[in-house]
Amino acid sequence: METYNPDPKPGRLILPLVLIGMIATTYTFINRVATNNSIEIIEDNTTTTIIEEVSEDTTTTSTTTTIPEGVVNYLEEITGEKIQAIELGKKVLETNQRWDDKTTTYQEAQNEFQEFIDDFEAFVEIVSTPGPPNDNSSLVSTHQEIVVLVNLIYDDTLELLEGLTAPDTGERRAAALDSFNSNLDQFILVIEQTVASATSS
Predict the structure, then answer these.
(1) What is the pLDDT of residues 141-193, one digit of tens each?
(2) What are phi and psi of 177, to 5 degrees?
(3) Residue 126: is it exposed, middle or buried by C-beta count within 10 angstroms (0-12/13-18/19+)?
(4) Which residues contact 113 (CB under 8 A, 6 or more apart)?
(5) From the CB of residue 10, how many other CB atoms can be counted at a distance below 10 Å?
(6) Angle between the N-to-C axes of helices 137-165 and 106-128, in degrees from 0 to 180, rounded to the nearest 10
(7) Burial of 65 (0-12, 13-18, 19+ CB in 10 A)
(8) I need a surface site. Which of 15, 18, 25, 167 has the fewest CB within 10 A?
(9) What 3-state class would DSSP assign to 138?
(10) What domains are there in the chain, each with its CATH number?
(11) How wide is the angle at C-alpha 175 spanned by C-alphas 186 and 148, nearest 5°?
(12) pLDDT single digits (tens) 89-107
């Protein structure tokens, strides 16, 4: 005997049940996510760069050099000797010019030239001693040059007198005067350079 099936398509009931199950599962999943806040956190790796400002120090440091007392005394000494040499040299030139101009007698010129010899002989002693401090090798070396020059100037005064009395027409005296002026100028220059060097270092 044939069994009667009241629903010719029984699969129609299965599909709605599957759909209901899927909806329920989705709802449950979404609820759980919302409740537990199980959200994936993406870490943002941000690199922070700190720029350190460098302040440039533009302060100028000045140093003051103290010149030893012995050196100061020596520099004052030779500066005074330079002035004295200039004055003595001026007198020599004036006397020589008066003789050239024939405004002085032979005897007067001879006496004055002899006085210059005496003056520069004493001046050699003044310049030679006492000199700079022995522990300052630079000044000691320069002082030796100054002493050599003042002795040359003294020799020139001797030659000036010899030139005055020479039987020529003044050539020997003129040569002695040129040498005198050259050595005197060099004497003054060395002293000025010595003072400038010692006070600037």
Answers:
(1) 999 999 999 999 999 999 999 999 999 999 999 999 999 999 999 999 999 99
(2) -70, -40
(3) middle
(4) 95, 157, 160, 161, 164
(5) 9
(6) 170
(7) exposed
(8) 167
(9) helix
(10) 77-200 (1.20.120)
(11) 35
(12) 999 999 999 999 999 999 9
